[in-house]
Design a protein that fits this description.
Number of domains: 2
Structural class: alpha+beta
Number of strands: 4
Distance between the termini: 97 Å
Radius of gyration: 40 Å
Helix content: 40-55%
Strand content: 15-25%
CATH superfamily of the largest domain: Sporulation related repeat
Largest sheet: 4 strands, antiparallel
Number of helices: 3
């Protein structure tokens, strides 16, 4: 059994200031005092990269929301009906005038050596389909294309 001791047991390291013994250096809870200089720089760079990626992704998400809200009000015109492609500019202008007389909105633009003649602007292919069937009676090779 354990006997009761009449004397105090001395500590391995005394806490007296003048003992001259080794005292372990106490660090605070400061993280940056324990790491080396080049490690601090690497941690700072990694933090900046992480912050940049997060801010970029948040900006992309905000941009998507802005586009969705603006597209709900006005539908973008991304389809048209290509009536023909002409090498001769005068023929393309003459056909555009004929289409304008019929009440259609012709659109002509250059692509390489050709002038592409299109009619109308539509938000999707289904809206362009009725006009396409009407124009195929006059212009045999017309088709729906993206703007």
């Amino acid at each position: 059994m354990a006997e009761k001791q009449d004397y105090l047991q001395s500590e391995l390291f005394t806490q007296s200031q003048n003992s001259g013994q080794y005292k372990p250096r106490t660090y605070g809870n400061q993280f940056f005092t324990r790491i080396r200089g080049y490690e601090k720089i690497l941690l700072l760079i990694m933090g900046l990269v992480l912050l940049s990626v997060i801010s970029f992704s948040l900006g992309v998400e905000k941009g998507k929301r802005v586009v969705l809200t603006s597209n709900n009000n006005i539908e973008p015109a991304s389809y048209t009906i290509q009536v023909g492609a002409f090498k001769n500019r005068n023929l393309a202008l003459h056909q555009a005038q004929l289409l304008a007389k019929k009440g259609l909105a012709p659109l002509a633009f250059a692509k390489g050596n050709y002038i592409i003649l299109c009619v109308g602007k539509f938000s999707n292919q289904e809206r362009a389909q009725p006009l396409l069937t009407q124009l195929q009676k006059t212009y045999a090779g017309c088709r729906i294309r993206r703007l």
